[in-house]
Specification:
Radius of gyration: 19 Å
Shape: globular
Number of helices: 12
Largest sheet: 5 strands, mixed
Helix content: 25-40%
Oligomer: single chain
């Protein structure tokens, strides 16, 4: 789902999911995808949105006034960002330094509303939440779904509604996944340390109870390795974010999105008991009010993930 450190930057912006590069990615190791460039799939052009939707955002004295005094005084926050995915998730541009993505735009816009500067560091997806608990970072971004399990140790401030879905090769017999029994006997690829991994592991029992062979969960730290596993037949399906799947299948030949399985609120992640949450909620609501929120969603093609107002650690959405 993201690079473990900035030393593992990906110099080719969308090479992770291009046809040529998929053949060069790590094979089943869960390690970093290959960084060699390659041509996009035939007839496809993997363009990354570049519209500036943040620089015009103004500070809101009311929202900034909700910040703890020490934060206002120092004027900075340490942010851990999960990087290395595909749009609309966070990824590096070709310079290997510039990070872009929906999470990045939202975090930068909120910082502008609060009059703060962000000190951003790339971190692996599965390492961010534990690092928040230790106090290493002030907040984390990475399309973190709000679950009841996570709410026990992490506070969230929501900014979109995304969720879980599946993608397969076009020759798959799967049409839509509505029950995990449909996955019995298959290999399912997903990101390490994600809600998808937890969901898949928690539902393996349905196959045993149905007298069928359990499905196998294959986890990878990089999105490129996940798609390589599907394209090369080492995985029969991919479970990931709804927005990420929709984008990825448009950029790769021979794949199809099977639709939504389960919706989840997505939020900025903080250490439990944070005093930053009220200010961040007010900042997100300000972005909704002034239109910046809609501009960010339109930039990344995720208008279907819009929320009406931000919430602090809401209960997990139950279907």
């Amino acid at each position: 789902m993201s690079t473990p450190s900035q030393s593992r930057r990906i110099p080719a912006a969308f090479a992770l999911i291009t046809a040529a590069t998929l053949a060069l990615t790590a094979c089943g190791s869960g390690g970093a995808a290959g960084t060699a460039g390659g041509a996009a799939p035939a007839g496809k052009s993997a363009r990354i949105p570049t519209a500036d939707v943040v620089s015009s955002v103004k500070k809101s004295p009311a929202a900034a006034g909700l910040l703890p005094a020490d934060v206002r005084e120092r004027g900075t926050l340490d942010v851990a960002a999960s990087v290395g995915g595909t749009p609309p998730g966070a990824l590096y541009l070709e310079d290997g330094r510039t990070i872009v993505g929906q999470d990045i735009d939202f975090a930068d816009a909120v910082a502008k509303v609060l009059g703060l500067k962000l000190k951003r560091e790339a971190a692996s997806f599965e390492a961010i939440l534990p690092a928040l608990g230790s106090g290493k970072y002030d907040l984390g971004t990475g399309n973190f779904g709000v679950t009841d399990e996570r709410r026990r140790t992490i506070d969230f401030v929501t900014y979109i509604n995304d969720g879980q879905g599946f993608a397969v090769r076009k020759d798959s017999k799967l049409k839509k996944v509505t029950d995990f029994e449909q996955l019995c006997g298959l290999n399912v690829a997903t990101g390490a340390g994600t809600t998808f991994e937890v969901t898949l592991e928690d539902n393996k029992h349905v196959c045993e109870e149905a007298g069928k062979k359990p499905y196998s969960v294959k986890t990878y730290a990089e999105q490129g390795a996940i798609w390589a596993a599907l394209q090369q037949g080492r995985a029969d399906a991919v479970m990931s974010t709804i927005n990420g799947l929709r984008y990825a299948v448009k950029q790769q030949e021979g794949l199809k999105f099977l639709g939504e399985y389960h919706r989840l609120d997505v939020g900025f992640a903080f250490k439990k008991g944070t005093k930053l949450a009220p200010a961040f909620r007010a900042a997100v609501d300000q972005l909704i009010k002034d239109g910046t929120y809609d501009h960010i969603l339109k930039k990344w093609g995720t208008q279907g993930s819009a929320i009406e107002k931000s919430q602090i650690s809401p209960p997990e959405i139950k279907d």
